[in-house]
């Protein structure tokens, strides 16, 4: 209860932002984002180095890309505070769904659908758009360091029609039940997989990739549909729904898991390269080193075998 005032401040700030026209909050966000960039020097420097590798850019080009990224982050921050205004009518006017036929066909398979997404564009508005268009959307969310911010965000998510499973409890059981009920289950799968991940290269660097999407696809036979958001220059967003990926059973589960995880990384990487100013280049995506991954040598042997069979 000691930090409850933070929730009230955020709630009040959200109310103030919601009184403004949408175009005005975008202008404010584009101004405030670079201001934060001046403060977050370590993040910017880390992002520049990752951009240089992932996009094959020089330092000047990478710095310019990060400047645009911070503008977009400012816009997204203001849009998050604006979420109480996300009526179905507003979403219809400002968020365009492209490729909905892929999602509709995947749902027709009657096995639930795993949504593969990333910290690109405004992923919160992406989820709201899916829910507003009648898709039974659920998501597993990571608790933020600030409990009051987490509380507010989950309120906003539920307000726009998302069913939220917070990590740290029985979320995997609830997620499994969601798929059994033929719902969408969203994974932000562009994060570091830590010691339990698979060694999959990502944006030019060795990395540990999360295995959540492939694990659920293997267990339930659910299609994995990549869904990402990008920002329209004039304001608003496009939700890009891409062709589904599948767990293909070759008789070697380790190889099959690796192959689908690698495909998830590749489709995510491709989208980021198409929209490089909208992904969080400074996140700790490559924190886990190769020798920290459990059974690394075995997993590297699986990686080689997966490539031999292709």
Itemize the secondary structure elements and their pairings.
Elements lengths: L3 H15 L3 H18 L1 H14 L4 H23 L6 H7 E4 L1 H9 L4 E5 L5 H10 L4 E5 L5 H13 L3 E4 L4 H10 L3 E5 L9 E2 L8 E2 L2 H9 L3 E8 L5 E5 L11 H22 L21 H13 L2
Parallel strand pairs: 1-9, 2-5, 2-8, 3-4, 3-5
Antiparallel strand pairs: 6-7, 8-9
Helix pairs in contact: 1-8, 2-4, 3-4, 10-11, 11-12
How would you briefly describe this protein structure?
Its main location: membrane. InterPro entries: LipA_acyltrans. Helices cover about 55% and strands about 15% of the residues.
Write up what this structure looks like.
This protein has 310 residues and is α/β, with parallel strands linked by helices. It has a single domain, classed as Glycerol-3-phosphate (1)-acyltransferase (3-Layer(aba) Sandwich), CATH 3.40.1130. It contains 12 helices and 9 strands. The strands form 2 sheets. It has a 7-stranded mixed β-sheet, sandwiched between helices. The protein has a two-stranded antiparallel sheet with strand order 6-7. A hairpin with a 5-residue loop joins strand 8 and strand 9 (237-241). Helix 2 (22-39) crosses helix 4, helix 3 (41-54) crosses helix 4 (59-81) and helix 11 (253-274) crosses helix 12 (296-308). The chain starts with a helix and ends with a helix. The relative contact order is 0.15. Its main location: membrane. InterPro entries: LipA_acyltrans. The chain crosses the membrane at residues 20-39. One of its GO terms (molecular function) is acyltransferase activity.
